[in-house]
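input
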Amino acid sequence: MKRRIIVFLCSILTVAASVLLAVTVLSTYYYKDVFTFGTWINGNYCTGMTSRQVSDMLLEQYVYPEICVSLLDEKVYELSYQDYGVCVDYSVAVNELLTQNTGWGWLKRGNIFKSFELVPNYNYDLDTMRQKLLSNEWLNEDLYDEAKTVSIVKTLEDGYILVDETQNLLIQTKAIEKIMDSIVNQLTEVDLREDCYIDIPYNKKMLETMEKWKGIEAFQDFAFIYDFGDRKEIINKGVVCDWIMLNEQGYIVYDENNLPVLDEAMIEEYVAYLGSVYNTVGMERSFQTTRGDIVKIAGGAYGNELDLVVEFEYLKNAFINKERTVRTPEYKTEAFVKGADDIGKTYIEIDMGNQMMYYYKNGKLKLETPVVTGNMKRNWDTPATVCYVYYKQKNRVLRGANYATPVKYWMAVHGNIGIHDASWRKEFGGDIYLTDGSHGCINTPLEKVKELYDMVEIGTPVIMFY
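output
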């Protein structure tokens, strides 16, 4: 009995050993070109994977480091190694690890259920790296050049400015080599401020230029504002720079104290420019009518006209004394409203084509009435113009070559033409003006002209058109 048991156990052990040997042999053959059971590489389970598969996987997961480059003025640029000729390769490290699995080695070295951390090979192309760095705009700014100097330059908005090209100049070759060396040594920071900048010493000519600049800077130190109602004209460096006298070659003229000379003619020209922009007397205007269309009306005495002589003297003295103020200019003729739109929203509109008159105040219609204007058959047409109410009177007698007519309300608007009542008329509007119109005045119903007289102010614009 015992003998049978022993024989049975021996048979079992022999079978088990044979199976284990077979499994071991088969496993050794299976894992000869792939990673063995339980292999972890850089946190990845790699059992059964080839070296190529593992290398590609690790390369895909790799994050290229960045290097921070510090320049002057607190500027910092971040560069990825991958963009500057650097590449990594896991194949050597992975192949070396895989050789541990050949033959019976994977058992002898105890590689089952073992984790590995592999570092890639670090490769770089210095020529590519240098060319990539050279293409960066910020490595091509403010470069050292012994020919750089100090100069005075005229700009459009800021007038004359001092351009000093001599300070904090970048030595490009040194900067690029320093960045390349840091990338090669796998650093994450590089500071160019320490030893990659240089200043050019000021020579005699540069110092003379800087001395002249002090005078120009003082000359341009002027802030003055003209208030034109809806617009303002700001006189700053960009304007004042043109008031410096230039010689025939276009160079600044300096006095015996090395200060720029004032060209008064340029102030006079500037004041003339203001007149060309803001004088509105006699100008053609586009007017939106009550009937709905836009008419163009030329000429007329209404508008703003600057007193150029007064303004020239005032502005010249203000500049010499460096006055800083806001000024409303003097006018020879002053409209009801300042600015380009000098009619504004309060006005009398006389539509002679439709024989209607309207009065608007602050944009709201306050009065409308039919009227009778100048007799066209007798060539007494009321002129199409932009004028204004320049006089008001009650109980006036209107006199002409062969008439004297009393009226209760009179508002003079253009020469001897005015708005007044016409008690002798029973009807207004329509086609009356064609054959039985006035001598040129605007005949208005008594009750309407009384309303208008009480509302309208001297200076109110009057727009007359057909």
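quick obs: Confidence is low (pLDDT under 50) at residues 19-25.
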